[in-house]
Design a protein that fits this description.
InterPro entries: Acyl_CoA_acyltransferase, GNAT_dom. There is one protein chain. The protein has one domain: Aminopeptidase (3-Layer(aba) Sandwich), CATH 3.40.630.30. Helices cover 39% and strands 25% of the residues. The two termini are 17 Å apart.
Length: 197
C-alpha cells in the first residue's frame, strides 16, 4: 500500500477475543524480522510464532488490537507478573508488550495501544505496569518515556515501570462501557477469516 494511501486511514483500537485468533496469527506472520525480534526479545521461528499466536488469546491477561482498514496492524498485550490473577483482576504487577507493523508506525497507533492497556491495567488491580524491550527498540523506549515510565538499563535490555493511579467509580464505569463497545465492534466488523499465507 502506498504511503499516501496510508495517510488517510484512521485506526480503531479494541479488545481482542478468541474469534480474532486468525487475525492475530496473520499479524504476527506479517511482521518483518526486526519487528518480530523486538516484540519477542529475540529471534523466533515461524513455528514459534504460530505456537504463541494459537494460545495468546486464551492465556491470562488481555490483548488489544489496532485495526486499519479492517486489518489488524498493531497489537498490545497485558499479562500478569505473579500468581493469583483472574479474568478481572491481574494483581499489582503486570507487563505490557506492543508491536506495530513498520508501514503503520508514526500514526499514533502505539500511543493509542499503550493508553488503552494502561487504562485496562488500572481497572484490573495493577499498580505497576512494566515494559521490557531491547535497548535498540527506539519506538518502544520513546513510548514508555512519553507515558512517564522510569527506565532502567540491564545489559542489552531496558525495563520500565509506570505507576498507575487507583481507579475511580467513574473510570470503572467508563471501562465497562468501553469493554462492551469493544465486543460490539468485534461482532460487527470481524476481520476477514482467511488462513495465513
Amino acid at each position: 500500500m502506498a504511503a499516501q494511501a496510508l495517510e488517510g486511514l484512521a485506526h480503531t483500537v479494541r479488545r481482542l477475543w478468541p474469534a480474532d485468533r486468525t487475525a492475530v496469527l496473520n499479524y504476527f506472520l506479517r511482521l518483518d524480522p526486526e519487528t518480530r525480534a523486538s516484540r519477542f526479545m529475540g529471534n523466533v521461528s515461524e513455528a514459534g510464532v504460530r505456537a504463541y499466536a494459537t494460545q495468546a488469546l486464551t492465556a491470562e491477561g488481555v490483548m488489544y488490537g489496532a485495526f486499519v482498514g479492517g486489518a489488524l496492524r498493531g497489537l498490545g498485550e497485558l499479562r500478569p507478573m505473579g500468581p493469583g490473577a483472574s479474568r478481572y483482576v491481574l494483581g499489582p504487577h503486570a507487563e505490557a508488550a506492543f508491536a506495530v507493523e513498520r508501514a503503520f508506525r508514526r500514526r499514533g497507533i502505539g500511543a493509542a495501544l499503550f493508553a488503552r492497556i494502561a487504562r485496562s491495567a488500572r481497572h484490573r488491580g495493577v499498580v505497576d505496569l512494566h515494559v521490557r524491550c531491547l535497548s535498540g527498540n527506539g519506538p518502544m523506549l520513546r513510548l514508555a518515556a512519553k507515558h512517564g515510565a522510569a527506565l532502567q538499563h540491564e545489559g542489552r535490555e531496558i525495563e520500565g515501570a509506570l505507576h498507575l493511579a487507583r481507579p475511580t467509580p467513574f473510570s470503572l464505569w467508563y471501562e465497562g462501557i468501553a469493554e462492551a463497545f469493544d465486543f460490539t465492534l468485534a461482532a460487527s466488523f470481524p476481520e476477514q477469516m482467511r488462513p495465513p499465507a
